[in-house]
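So, could you explain the following?
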Amino acid sequence: MSTIKLVQISEDKNQYPFAGYKKILNAIYNEIMQHKHAKVLDIGIGTGVLSSKLYEYDHLIDGIDFSPKMISIAQSKMPAATIIEWDISKGLPRERMKNEYDFIVSTYTLHHLTDNEKITFITDLLSVLTDNGKILIGDIAFAGRKELEQCKQDNQQNWDDDEFYFVYNEIKTALEHICKCEFEPISHCGGVFIISK
């Protein structure tokens, strides 16, 4: 079964891991659409599901993804976008980061990083964010560890032990000395982080 089909089934049934998927993408889209011609960096751009919609409204898009096939599809939707192949486990591709961004978005990508790697990566992202910019992360996420453990117990057969899901109160504590971190829960297993300087 394709990933797209799995996302759709999980979302339609309001089940882990993709319950609230479209609402999460819409929340990020609506936040950015309050601005005109924003510079947007999409981490894990994939086929450009979110960014291509922003591109249609003249937002300036840069993207990073590890899959040449997905990059090719995204580039065909957004010919003027700059999209590079990169593995985010190596951090940011510094030599390619020529812009500061009004928005840095990532949807369903950063759960591949451990919690410590997430903190390091988010800290790095802050260095390429404009002063009034925002990092918007939509992903599998929980308000606290208790909620994560309950979801894991309820979904033992499908749980992916190779992924590291966001726990808001832990991430907020780890970041509080360097930035502001808020969380908007969208479903029982997903939501949007809003991070600013």
